[in-house]
Amino acid sequence: MIKTILACVSSAKTGQQVLESVGRIAKIFGSHIEILHVRADPRGLVPYTGEGMDGSMIEEIMEVTEKEGSERAQDTKNLFDEYSKSSGIPILDEPDGKTGASMSWREEIGREDEIIATRGRLFDLIFVGRPMRDSAFPSPITLEAALLDTGRPTVVVPPILPPKTGEHVAVAWESSSEAAHALSAAIPILEKANKVTLLSADPVEPPAIPPEEGALRLKWSGIDSTIEKFDVKEQEIGAAYLKYASEVRADFLIKGAYARSRVRQMILGGRTRHIITSTEIPVLLCK
Known about the structure:
The chain is of the alpha/beta class. Helices cover 42% and strands 21% of the residues. It is built from 9 helices and 10 strands. It has a 10-stranded mixed sheet with strand order 3-2-1-4-5-10-9-6-7-8, sandwiched between helices. The model is unreliable at 264-269 (pLDDT under 50).
């Protein structure tokens, strides 16, 4: 079961969709959500300031950073309070012995990626907003820290949500250990879905496990699924997963992350990188 969820909300401007998405999942499982907001520590900027800057200039930069961080934190906390009221999800700091979704607020000062890399290990699932090209928030560094350093499944939330989340779940069928980890982590979500579709490149990449074997594996967990095959030569496979997830009208995607070298994907691109930057539905990723 998914009983604890960490949602990283960097700003009020980009946080609404993260709250809405995590709230939908929490209501299904009666989960507790910790909303984490990290304020940058102005003292951490000192090593990055120019050598030609005097003490007064450095102090001014730190003051501006502190002011902006405080304002962003207050705006984000206001968003949290408003969402709790509109969603009906109560605010609880400790378990009260009752079932049902709940949420709490946590604010820390430091580097967002470093804090989520350690705190994320306490939770069953992590939610992070999809990085945007024209915005510093959400940060791609934070997302990669959640994916690569916590050992926990991470959901990437797009800037615009589909009307539902988790009713029709697509699985990017692959034979990698990362894909196996993702499938295992997603079983609770798949059990609750109304429909499950396995998206499979044809032919399957070696070492090949036919999608029919995946459907049988899910059947043993009491999950019925259908298989949608696509020509692997048609287009880049990451884009293909998103295309066919859209065509079958899935509202959630399950995918193994960085099955190939992360460095190679950063330089040359790759299916995980494409999905992280382009998805229009929430995606659960596992390393």
